[in-house]
């Protein structure tokens, strides 16, 4: 037994050492100065969730037990909360510092499908939101480990567009008790309250001095993100599966030192606003060896707020060895970019079955400076629309509404500026359009450099309002005889 324990200890130590080496490898490979990555420092003390009254029958609500466990561990200086195999039904879980939330293989943390278990809370003065299944603010040293599953019960919250489903899936939705359809029969809603909330939200969210009681009227419409830790120093996600979110799956905000690795993120393709991983306004981020299936954007970069001291609010990001299936985009920037972005490196990734491969988007009103983006060694398959898309004229619309008109796109404020992108060694085996560049006349998309790119596509290069797009050894359908939109003739420079 002693020899076995020594062997296990050696194996764990070897694994940790190898993973640290992986981080250093990517840091050294990045085409910009990244700095040192700091992982969470958590005391080596184990706590079994069963000891706090947890019951794994899939029926008993464990919200209070999780609260007790996390509060106790935090009061004792931190440690590892072990969630054993079984189905653990719960409401929202608030994380605290110095805790490793370890879900063992065979464990399912199943969030309740009762929306009342996730109360409306005041997230900041005058701003209200539904409490997320996994949340926490102003933390240090937090991790999620193990091979278990977090399930967000997203079907209890999400509207579903009919065209995204099969006949069998649509019939299954129609059979759900309490659900309803939009007036035109094209959108399924989980409840009448969720459906009516869309119109009410347009008024309530813009009402000065709106109260929490007013927001309760749109409770079921205000879907939470599944994972929304914010203002955290040293956050690690290593191993678990996060699936079936009401909205975005993993959405860390304002994180310093974030590692996501060996992780599976899943939302069904019909999941409205069902982004996989959305990183917002963070610094020192490494995502690798991770699989994403999304209903919207796969791996997405966002940055809101006013940059301080001229520094971008999102910077020093590495994404490597990741796979994105389905979803609206494989690697995505935007649409919120007003906080600025720089120093992002994407390498050795595969996008299969996404609407768009590389998707960069924003618009007036929420745009900012985005530059020093490096993308290389990308393989794309079964791309439905554009292989590469740059759009500063992007129009976002709620589930039941129409797109904004062109005039609404020009606010004159927070105008996006996409420039200095370096894309190399890309193979796309099928797409509708090879390249699309759609800028604003007041701020052109410019200084984009593509090298060693081969795209199979029905259409060539389309768009307007771009400057100095350089192609070096770029082939469309194995040819350099491109079909270029007349508005881009002067913008495309072929070497």
Structural class: mainly beta
When the domains are counted, the total is 2
How many H/I helical runs? 5
- Main beta-sheet strand count, sense and barrel state: 27 strands, parallel
What is the CATH C level class of the largest domain, in words? Answer: Mainly Beta
Q: How many individual β-strands?
A: 32
Helix content: 10-25%
Uncertain runs are 1-17
**Could you say what the CATH architecture of the largest domain is?**
3 Solenoid
CATH topology of the largest domain: Pectate Lyase C-like
Percent of sequence in beta strands: 35-45%
Euclidean distance between termini CA atoms: 66 Å
Say which CATH homologous superfamily of the largest domain is assigned: Single-stranded right-handed beta-helix, Pectin lyase-like
> What form results from the Cα inertia axes?
globular
How is the quaternary structure best described?
Answer: single chain
Averaged pLDDT: 93
Radius of gyration: 23 Å
Give an account of the 3D structure.
The chain is mainly β and 495 residues long. It folds into two domains: 46-153 and 226-494, Pectate Lyase C-like (3 Solenoid), CATH 2.160.20; 161-215, no CATH class. It is built from five helices and 32 strands. The protein has helices at residues 2-29, 63-75, 167-174, 192-204, 212-216; strands at residues 46-48, 79-83, 86-90, 93-94, 99-103, 107-111, 120-124, 127-130, 134-145, 149-151, 160-161, 180-181, 187-189, 227-238, 241-243, 253-261, 264-266, 277-280, 283-288, 291-293, 297-302, 314-320, 323-325, 329-333, 341-352, 356-361, 369-381, 386-391, 417-438, 445-464, 466-476, 492-494. The strands form three sheets. It has a 27-stranded parallel β-sheet that branches. The protein is globular and about 70 Å long. Mean pLDDT is 93; it is low at 1-17.
